[in-house]
Amino acid sequence: TPEFMAPELYEEEYNELVDIYSFGMCVLEMLTADYPYSECHNPAQIYKKVTS
Predict the structure, then answer these.
(1) What is the chain's Cα-based Rg?
(2) What are the residue ranges spanned by the domains of the chain?
(3) Cα–Cα dist 48/45, whole Å
(4) Residue 52 contacts residue 40 (beta carbons within 8 Å)
(5) What is the model's pLDDT at position 30?
(6) Predicted local confidence at residue 6, as pLDDT
(7) pLDDT (tens digit, 9 = 90+) per residue, 1-50?
(8) Which parts of the sequence belong to the Protein kinase domain (predicted)?
(9) Quick check: pTM over 0.85?
(10) CA distances from 52 to 7, 30, 33, 45 (A)
(11) Alpha carbons 18 and 49: distance in angstroms, whole number
(12) CA 22/CA 3 separation, integer angstroms
């Protein structure tokens, strides 16, 4: 899902480090009890925020 995707996945050039990023986002969600980028209302907003 876009909330957990590393920026490299959007560019389709990635390696195993994207798994570490996704794991970190899962840990963040567990610690905060909130979805990453919950302020965004659609995947396009998440893409813009992650790639900027």
Answers:
(1) 11
(2) 2-51
(3) 5
(4) no
(5) 96
(6) 83
(7) 677 788 888 778 888 888 888 899 899 999 999 988 889 999 889 888 88
(8) 1-52
(9) no
(10) 9, 25, 25, 11
(11) 17
(12) 9
Q: Which two tokens stand for residue 38?
A: 């919950």
Query: What CA–CA distance (Å, rounded) separates 30 from 47?
Result: 22
Q: What are phi and psi of 34, to 5 degrees?
A: -145, 145
State both tokens at 21.
């990023």
Residue located via tokens 């920026």: 7
Q: Strand, helix or coil at 12? A: coil
Q: Which amino acid is at 12?
A: E
CA 41 to CA 24: how far, in whole Å?
A: 22
Amino acid at 13: E
